[in-house]
Target: Oxidoreductase
Amino acid sequence: MNVLIIGLGYAGTRFSQAFSNLDPAVTGNEPVEIAYVNRSPKSNGYRYFSDIETAVKEFEPAVVVVSVNDEYHIDVIKQLRGYRGFVICEKPLVHPQDDLDEVEASLKHTSGFALDLVERYSDASITLKQYVKDHNLRLVRANFYWGKDRINDHRPTSGVISEIIHPLDLVQWVSGGDAELELKDLQGIRSDFSISGTAVLDSAAITANLAGAVVTGYSSFVNILRKREVDLVFASPANKLIFATMIFDTPVWDIDYLRIWEKTNIGERVIVDLKTEIDESRPELNTIRKLIRLVGDAAGFAASGAEPSQPFADLPSSLKLQKLLNTIDADARTIGPVQYVVGSEREFFNDETNWERLG
Ligand SMILES: NC(=O)c1ccc[n+]([C@@H]2O[C@H](COP(=O)([O-])OP(=O)(O)OC[C@H]3O[C@@H](n4cnc5c(N)ncnc54)[C@H](O)[C@@H]3O)[C@@H](O)[C@H]2O)c1
Model:
């Protein structure tokens, strides 16, 4: 199976590792061949193309991964116009200023599409989603806190919309139903945290409605410690409150936690208490354990039409999410800009061993 990765930086490299570690059965034992398009070639043994058109024509990829920086997604997507294979696109789908009709038209002929919303592939979110469905729970209230430190990171970014997309998706994803999140109050903070500008939206706090439930949350790219938590309260058909909390990538990447419980007269009745297990004997899978599930689903679907383990974050749902992000970007009442460049120039730390640059 031929896989073309467009943009072989941090995210693209993780995709190459995920595809290289796929169970061969997924592709019907067809070996995975990887090629890439990048600003410049790398010495990694993969076939390099300097332009997308030639790569698609000559390499005939069954799967294309779009993992260039946010602001270039649209250019790449436009160049995929007419492509008939499967596209995996890094989040966010595009930059807030980009034309969504053009995105839709360009990807119209693809055989399938998945946005990389990798937390959908966590056992924590999968288990909660299933529990909510099986027990016909109705969301009453949700709150999230989702942040990491990207201060003085050397990669361009569209800002906090690239981070808040995860909890916005998760709340809707686990609570099921077709209702759309309606954003209400939006507040933000701007800063020069990123090389992408002097007043980029680095954090956002939202209030929203979702099918009668109230959703609140805060997300940030200047949170000095990584923190990824979603708390939810549901009502059961027997009119009991059911509580759930999900914590992701804590204390290390790939370790996620889910607890579901109800209150009783003698304390709490714990319904689910789950901490994801990782196979320590395979360090090559560190940080890509969830990604490999998404990649496996995409490869299986592209190879033989196999049903994915989860429905993909397809183009319609990705466009809906992008509209929410665009609203946050455009309408948040903001304070700042905060100045993180406190000296005469920005200070960069190129610590290749720092896993915090992920995500
Ligand atoms: N899902 C996640 O958790 C997650 C994690 C990290 C990054 N991302 C996303 O992945 C994307 C890439 O981020 P990154 O951290 O890998 O950045 P990066 O800067 O490390 O890599 C981007 C790569 O794309 C290449 N590139 C840029 N424009 C190009 C173009 N027009 N044609 C060909 N190559 C081009 C660059 O040379 C670079 O190698 C972003 O959209 C980011 O939001 C997602």
The first strand starts at residue 2 and ends at 6. Helices lie at 10-20, 52-59, 73-79, 100-106, 123-134, 161-175, 289-304, 315-331.
